[in-house]
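If you are new to this repository, start here. Below is one unmodified record pulled from the training split, so you can see the exact layout before writing a loader.
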Amino acid sequence: MSQLTLLATTDVHGNALNWDYYRDRPWQPPDGEELGLAQAATIIQRIRAERGPERVLLVDNGDTLQGTPLATFYARQEPITDTGVRHPLAAAFNAMGYDACNIGNHEFNYGLNLLQVFEEQLEMPLLGANILDPHSRKPLFQPFTLVRRVIDGRELIVGIVGLTTPGSTVWDRAHLEGQADIIDMVASAAYWVPQVRELGADVVVVLSHAGLGQTTYATTVEAPSENPAREIAQQVPGIDVMVIGHTHRDAPEQWITCESTGQSVLLTQPRALAAGLTETTIDVEPNGEGWSVSVQGAIPLPVAGQEPLTQVVDAVTQAHEKTRSYVNQQVAVSERELSTAESCWRATGAIEFIQQVQAATVAEALADGEYAGLPVVSLTAPTSRTAAIPEGTVSIRDLAGIYVFDNTLAAVLLTGAQLRAHLEHAARYYADLPPGVAFDPATMTGAERDGLTVWDYQYDIAWGVSYEIDLTRPVGHRIRNLSHPDGSPVRDDERFAVALNHYRRSGAGDYPDVSTAPVLYNDMVEIRQLLIDWALERGVAVPGTENWRIVTK
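And here is the target side for that same chain:
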């Protein structure tokens, strides 16, 4: 009996090194967790040395190109599409010797052109079986790869199929509409897995940039299921292992039974942000002209405590230092600290700064048109609990820290009733408050609803109106005293220009109305860049208004 080892990463999100670009220091999380491909590479190198490179496969499951200023710099400030410079994440992947990489939803954040240049820079296949040309209906990316290994003097063929969540056609519609269709993952797996088997694959691995769970975009959106990993395993025979991701869960070993064969399929989900990888053990034994295959299980391999591998550090050092120089540029001076620490449960100056920039941008854009007289409401989520605009000099990294996503700004037309419904949906974020129990922000934010956590980035805070969230009331009936800044109540039939990011406009978070509302503004300008430009021109002062509050008794 021989063994094959499958090593996997997923949802790396630009973390080539264990570096916090928002604080310009190594990551220092409270639980001691460390991040980075460079440290993961040390584990990979050790396992290859112990077992032999022929017995080890290395795959990545997508969401690589977005998540840190390092990734953003080579997509926005000095895009690889203009410079031809190798993207630091491509350099890291090449240095690590991946056998295959999958496409995640965040790979589309900067458009197909940049993704295709990234693909050209990789020395391994970039897979995307269910991403189709809308005209020819053929895959735009390589659907699968066959990796050949020689074990005990005999060839073993591993077929790897890559699939990505169709949610990208919702979240990145502006980049993909008319250029790419992302079709149902289950149907695609059912088409490609048998083909890979017919081509001689002894072992079949499916890279699924989707997890187990519900769809988070609005029910009014016409798109296939966001997280059908379970259904793929249940309905598609012939799969030995699935590497899953997208949901950022740490779940190294789960087993799902294929309904038609009765065989168990291993689903392994590595820790996100390059904080770890998973190791799957597969027993293989010659059987006539083929192989008998038995998947034994998977274990997590955290990167904490590992020395970074020199080859990976060297591959990204120049890009790392250039990114540090950029984000440390000074752009403004602040008279007081604006922290995000309490933004999830009370009004803060950090969120107010984002809101006033969004609202002013939309108001200025609508000033000379049909909707000039509409009141403007801004919506944003608390995207960090640890960032702050400091008192004194303010740098680009400080502003990037309070808004960590590469979202663009849009605005839609909502009625007062729709705005209230939106805020009621947002208030699901807070746990139910039993009588006589004090509100605890540590345990009563990010509640679980219908089996899924409502994460911070799925919770919208409004600015431009005043309101209360009464946690003594049931979900759906928590918003009280919704009013204009002058105190007059918001009427159901009033109309508002509502500023929000493109991710939320797509319906992400299953918010009602916004995905189908008339669009008033959509210039595709990044919100983070708007914050930087505003700070350069006008500073970072905010009025300090507390326009919303939680009611607990």
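Two things worth knowing about this chain: Residues 310-327 form the longest helix (18 residues). The CA atoms of residues 154 and 289 lie 10 Å apart.
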